[in-house]
Amino acid sequence: MPPFDYTPPPYTGPSADEILRKRQQFLNPAVLHFFKKPLNLVDGKMQYLFDENGRRYLDAFGGIATVSCGHCHPEVVDAIVNQSKRLQHSTILYLNPAIAEFAEALASKFPGDLKVVFFTNSGTEANELALMMARLYTGSHDVISIRNGYHGNAAATMAATAQSGYKFNVVQTGVHHAQNPDQYRGIFGSDGPKYARDVDDIITYGTSGQVAGFISEAIQSTTALERQGGFALLTRSNQVLLALAAIFWGFEAHGVVPDIVTMAKGIGNGIPLGAVVTTPEIAKVLACRNYYNTYGGNPVCTAAGLAVLKVIEKEKLQQNAFNVGLYLKQRLNSLKDKYEVIGDVRGRGLLVGVELVTDRQLKTPAKVETLRVMEHMKEMGVLIGKGGLFGNVFRITPPLCFTKEDVDFLVDVMDYTLSKI
Ligand SMILES: Cc1ncc(COP(=O)(O)O)c(C=O)c1O
User: Fold this and answer.
1) What is residue 254's predicted lDDT score, i.e. its pLDDT?
2) pLDDT at residue 248, rounded to an integer
3) 217 CB under 6 A from ligand 1?
4) Rounded CA gap, 213 and 240, in Å?
5) For position 243, what pLDDT does the model report?
6) CA of 65 to the centre of ligand 1 (A)
7) At 53, is the secondary structure helix, strand, or coil?
8) For the domain with range 74-314, which CATH number is right: 3.30.43.10, 3.40.640.10, 3.90.850.10, 3.50.30.20?
9) What pLDDT is recorded for position 33?
């Protein structure tokens, strides 16, 4: 493990077993644990986490792609503490500098007319709001979403989500799911225009011909659609509102400017914060009623958001994500040459997936092996995540301060673990 000069304070709280018992008794029974013996994480510093015994782990999951600047980044913590000491909450009904400053700073990062910001508490809320605005603005209800996407767990977002494991059997209306432009498993391979035509066909055959919009996780569409100019085709031919869920302006890679952008997770570095950015014209659709969110844009969250934005710029974290991400993909691709079980390595920057298969030809998901590798890597001090429809894709989404030394440690541990399974 790369050296790191930090020792967390001693932990005096309840044991992991005690917490697990309470969790099983009092909390959501649907929550899964990745590991046989769930980890009790009690401290964090930048790209490292510490358990109750002070053992250090390299965090390559970032609280599900959320800890962008690093755990407990001092400047973000200072912003939260300072704002909490002055005023935690007043509601949007009163003026406060934190929300105004952050809205201005965020808007300055967007091109064209994308200048109006709505704050929410989560990604789900941001996507719900975006979908509602698209529907109100266009007067159409139908939405196109891409298969395999996840957009949240409320009514409209669960409908837009396209993975059965995240969909409950309740009424979900108005969403048509287009083929996932996934170069590895997608039915059209990397033929972007075919995926775009699928969307076109859905609109022609499955709707009145008018739709409210097209929603996609920016990372989903970085594959075939983007390479073959599929997005340009979509916007040109269908006049749909384009909403791309971006973790940090993922849409910029596509060569199109969406009408609505939603974001959450990394913009707060762990503080509950989501946002929708759109044009003044589209934003106006909410002015005919009251749209109100008690906590959305509260002073503490927006002070944190502004600090995150500043840290990302000051520490050139996007550049770091690009450089270290390239190195990570290079090293993972070398592992792919070495181990048949790695079927695919994909992603952008420090948002990387590694898909395990038991048969490269058939692409049979290697679910058991995925869990086993994660478990062994955890034992060796590296935390990675898991996802995908079949639960056979490692999710590597570390804080953006991740270094090449961290990559070396992660990949060496993965290499060793794969050699043992
Ligand atoms: C792409 C995407 N959209 C939406 C969401 C929902 O965000 P939240 O869990 O903050 O409601 C998530 C969360 O994992 C996500 O990854």
Assistant:
1) 75
2) 53
3) yes
4) 5
5) 54
6) 10
7) coil
8) 3.40.640.10
9) 81
Task: Please work out whether the CB of residue 243 comes within 6 Å of at least one atom of ligand 1.
Answer: no
Q: Tokens 């050296």, residue?
A: 3
The pLDDT of residue 255:
76
**127 CB under 6 A from ligand 1?**
yes
**What is the DSSP track for 61-122?**
SHHHHT--S-BT-HHHHHHHHHHHHH-S---TTS--HHHHHHHHHHHTTS-TT--EEEEESS
Closest ligand 1 atom to residue 272 Cα is 10
As a whole number of angstroms, the distance between CA 350 and CA 371 comes to 21
CA 418 / ligand 1 centre spacing (Å)? 30
The domain 16-69+317-420 having CATH identifier 3.40.190.10: the answer here is no
Is the CB of residue 61 below 6 angstroms from any atom belonging to ligand 1?
no
pLDDT at residue number 222: 56
Tell me, using a 6 A CB cutoff, whether residue 150 lines ligand 1. Answer: yes
The two structure tokens encoding residue 165: 């494991």
Q: How far apart are CA 185 and CA 52, in angstroms?
A: 41
What is the distance between the terminal CA atoms of the chain, rounded to a whole angstrom?
22
Show the low-confidence residues of the chain (pLDDT under 70).
221-249
Mutate to test the pocket of ligand 1, among 119, 121, 150 (most ligand atoms within 8 A of CB): 150
